[in-house]
Amino acid sequence: MAATTSSGRPSEARERLLATTTGLFYAQGIHSVGVERIVAEAKVTRATFYRHFASKEDLVVAYLQGIHEHVRANYEHSVASGKPAPDVIRDIGQQIVEEIRTPGFRGCAFLNAAAEYPDPDHSVHQVILSHRRWFLDLITDLFAQNRDVRPVGLALHFVMLRDGVMAAGYLGDPVEAADTFSRGVDGMLRYNLLEIPPAKS
C-alpha cells in the first residue's frame, strides 16, 4: 500500500518518485532506467523508494496508471461536454493531435511499454490491456449513439488510426502525421455518420 500523509493524500516523496519516473521512463524507456537513477533524481533514499513501491514493476504499474488517469480525465471531460457524439470523437482526435505535436513526443507510452513487457500475464502488460479496453469501450459507446452504424467496427478503426499515428508521429513528420490522422477521422465520421455516399469508381 502506498504511503500517505495524515490527510490521506499521497506523500510528497511518492509524488516526486512518480513525476521523476514519468519523465525518465517515457523519454528513455523503462528497462534502461534503473532504481538507483530514479532514487538519485527524485532525491529520495532507497528505503523511501521501497516504502512506497515493493519493486520496480510496481512503480511501472503506477506510472502507467497515472498516465491512464490523466488521459481518462481529459477524454471524459469531452464526453461530459454535452456535444453530439461525432464532435466528441473529433475532440478526442484533436487531443491526440496535440499530443503528437508536443515537443519530446516519442510515441504512445502504453505501446512502448508493451514492447518492453510482452508477456500478457505480467502485471505491467495487464495494465496496458486494461487501458486499451477502456479506450475501445469509450469510442464504441460514442459510435453506438448512432443506430445506423456498427459501433465496434468503427471503434476498432479509430483505435487503429490512433495507434498508427502514434508511431508515424514519432518516427516521421509529426505535423504531416497529425494532419493525415485528422483527415482520416473526419472522413470516417462523415462517411459513416452523415451518410455521404462513397465516390463512384
From TrEMBL:
PROSITE patterns: HTH_TETR_2. The keyword Metal-binding does not apply. SUPFAM superfamilies: Homeodomain-like, Tetracyclin repressor-like, C-terminal domain. Residues 34-53 bind DNA. Keywords: DNA-binding. GO terms for molecular function: DNA-binding transcription factor activity; transcription cis-regulatory region binding. Transmembrane segments: none annotated. InterPro entries: Homeodomain-like_sf, HTH-type_TetR-like_transc_reg, HTH_TetR, Tet_transcr_reg_TetR-rel_C_sf. Pfam families: TetR_N. The keyword Transferase does not apply. Residues 11-71 form the HTH tetR-type domain. This is TetR family transcriptional regulator.
